[in-house]
Amino acid sequence: MQALVIVAHGSHLNPDSSTPTHQHADTIRASGAFDEVRTGFWKEEPSLREVLRTVEADEIYLVPLFISEGYFTEQVIPRELRLDGWDVSEWNSDGLSADTATLEATDTGQTIHYCGPVGTHEAMTDVLVRRAETVTGDPSVGDECGFAVVGHGTERNENSAKAIEYHADRVRDLDRFDEVQALYMDEDPEVDDVTDFFDTTDIVVVPLFVADGFHTQEDIPEDMGLTDDYRTGYDVPATVDDHRIWYAGAVGTEGLTADVILERAADAGADISTAIETVREQTRETTLADD
């Protein structure tokens, strides 16, 4: 038997924080890729410390639903899961290339294939583009349109900015959008000045966050000038400084994120290629049905 465990931050304050995690788990569970699919959280139940006890399988592919490498993926998760012999050097990562470390959980004896976070996987670029398609309702969006990837930005974790720049570069390399820019909430270039960075009339803005919460639902819309008060709502698209801004909300709420989770597990050795194709097709159909 092989199982998948998706671990995420969760929140005591935002009841919607765990919603994308559960939705992606449901999608993968329905694909039949694994004998078991479980979720665990830092701030919700089941906790990281207890989640392995909910799994019967002896072999587990564990995927962090986090955007970047850092404190949680390198310290908190391995500590709480009690992964014997864990050392961050196992990943030999430059801040973007964490892949897989195979370890044993000390108290359960299970074999854990500990994967890098979903946010740094190359397949997340596809999800960002899909998010642009979803919010505009245009599967060919790109021509005469700008694209902004937005991150938090922090001096405490330089890898946070690395993930944003990485995907902005990959979207730029697609040569699909007229202009592509990485923007941040707490460092330059700031999302507050989004219209200063684009000549295109239309701009798609996609935050590289796992779930919608305080930052994506309140801070970013107000910072960009979509609204003076997030509680009154805002139009999509909204007109700001003669630009039309298509604000997509957190990339992690896009159904195709389930594919990135599967890609991480496949990279770690899980034989699930058929399931990956199924999930890609299913999320594509769901997107089209919602448009």
Structure, explained:
This protein is α/β, with parallel strands linked by helices. It folds into 2 domains: 2-120 and 254-290, Rossmann fold (3-Layer(aba) Sandwich), CATH 3.40.50; 124-252, Rossmann fold. 33% of the residues lie in helices and 20% in strands. It has helices at 19-31, 48-51, 71-81, 124-136, 158-173, 214-224, 257-267, 273-290; strands at residues 2-8, 36-41, 59-64, 83-84, 100-105, 111-115, 145-151, 179-184, 202-207, 238-240, 243-247. The strands form 2 sheets. The chain has a 6-stranded mixed beta sheet with strand order 2-1-3-6-5-4. Helix 5 links the parallel strand 7 and strand 8 (179-184). Helix 4 packs across helix 5 (158-173) and helix 7 runs antiparallel to helix 8. The longest helix is centred in the last third of the chain and has 18 residues, at 273-290. The relative contact order is 0.16. The mean pLDDT is 94. One of its GO terms (molecular function) is metal ion binding.
